């Protein structure tokens, strides 16, 4: 009964939680679900009613509920199996961003190490030039392209680029908090800056940070989707495909990689980009609802 | 005002220079054969790259594309197409967004307002690329059922700009509407409103007061709206085969055509700059000066 009252009081939070756990469930146990082809068999051709073979991609039919990709792999299985990697990457990016932003925001609030100027420039630059263009320019840099830990670099780049926005928000919150009396009290007692941040400021920030953090996960998914259309993924490796010829080889199952051929697919196999971006939209939705729900809950 | 303008121009120049420096970081790779191993290496160092760029720029300007057309000539065509989307989309986002926000505010207690709030929230969570693909998928299905066919892709028909424009406008417009709603709601309970009601003003008259007072914070959003439109344009043009500057920008970046990339991104930066300057002018002429109000 209590649960029902809670759900009625916090519909958004409840809905968001259910959607989130569904996502986690698929990411963890999706491969055990019935109808999921874990081997991702490539079907080379099917036969139509006149027994004439035709090649993939196959549109949605009884055998493949949402169709196949260009190699004839079941799209539903691809999306389910790719969920885990996608989730890990977007959450990692958001997490790194916030871990970087908290100290930066604090230093900016204290006006130390020129962090304030740095933040102003980063934010100014990014309010002129679309983030996605900067990501492309940085991601195609030679040392990063050839690095063995390229995925890590890319995660860091995407996390760091928007760190300015988050740090600015934290700074403003801290500025507001610092006028409170208990902070003056802490200062008067003479505690260290680290302790001041940890014990005096942070307890008041956790709620707000959580709301923004969850919302940001959705935003990261959005950016990765956009990058996917342009063929820039977190994980693919630069390989020697032939003597003297090197190229990018796709080595992951994450959702944005399904959009690689989106421009071609839109004219034929539109279900591939449609369902891949539908999955991303679901993620964005989940985290938006959850973020709103938490905000209402904390009020 | 003049001082403000100078400062903005200075920042603009710095941002262009910063972008050029980022653009010229060494990217071109060639593969060398070192004793059986094929190792990719960059062709030029950063310094050489910058020197070459300056030299090229002095001798040939933005140069030619690989088919021998002057970059500036092709750019003129592309920019015209871009502006066909950007300008209506911007106006629609700002004006339509404010209008939707006002409507939602006016009916916030009634079921109509609640439904509107719900839908605007749902649609603002939908990424533009999904919205666009879904729109195309739906139209293709409708063509089968009997909707008269028209061209979904390309940029050669007079109506080509409409579909991409809708996709580009959706999010900024809803953002604007949400923002308007919130700032109007923050004004509720202010003394001047009570006075206005007490003097017998009707709803519309009071709304006019409200909007006038919110205008300053609404104008703050123009830069964000424009940035969002340009970001989104970059993707949607690719998705819709709309041959604007945004469509070609990605190709130039991947193919390391540095002067061409610069030529294609400069209009974007100039549009942003114009938005900032226009906003400043609007703020100066339109926004009422608040006297002695501590807020």
TrEMBL record, chain A:
The keyword Calcium appears for this protein: no
TM stretches of this protein: 12-30, 87-109, 121-145, 151-170, 209-234, 268-290
Subcellular location: Membrane
Source domain of life: Bacteria
InterPro entries: MetI-like, MetI-like_sf
Main subcellular location of this protein, as a coarse class: membrane
Single GO biological process annotation from the record: transmembrane transport
Gene3D superfamilies on file: MetI-like (1.10.3720.10)
GO cellular component: membrane
Full protein name: Peptide ABC transporter permease
UniProt topology in membrane: Multi-pass membrane protein
Residues annotated as domain ABC transmembrane type-1: 83-291
Record has NADP as a keyword: no
Keyword tags: Membrane, Transmembrane, Transmembrane helix, Transport
From TrEMBL, chain B:
InterPro entries registered for this protein in UniProt: MetI-like (IPR000515), MetI-like_sf (IPR035906)
Pfam families in the cross-refs: BPD_transp_1
Full protein name: ABC transporter permease subunit
All residue ranges annotated as the ABC transmembrane type-1 domain in the record: 94-288
Keywords in alphabetical order: Cell membrane, Membrane, Transmembrane, Transmembrane helix, Transport
Example of a GO biological process term: transmembrane transport
Subcellular location: Cell membrane
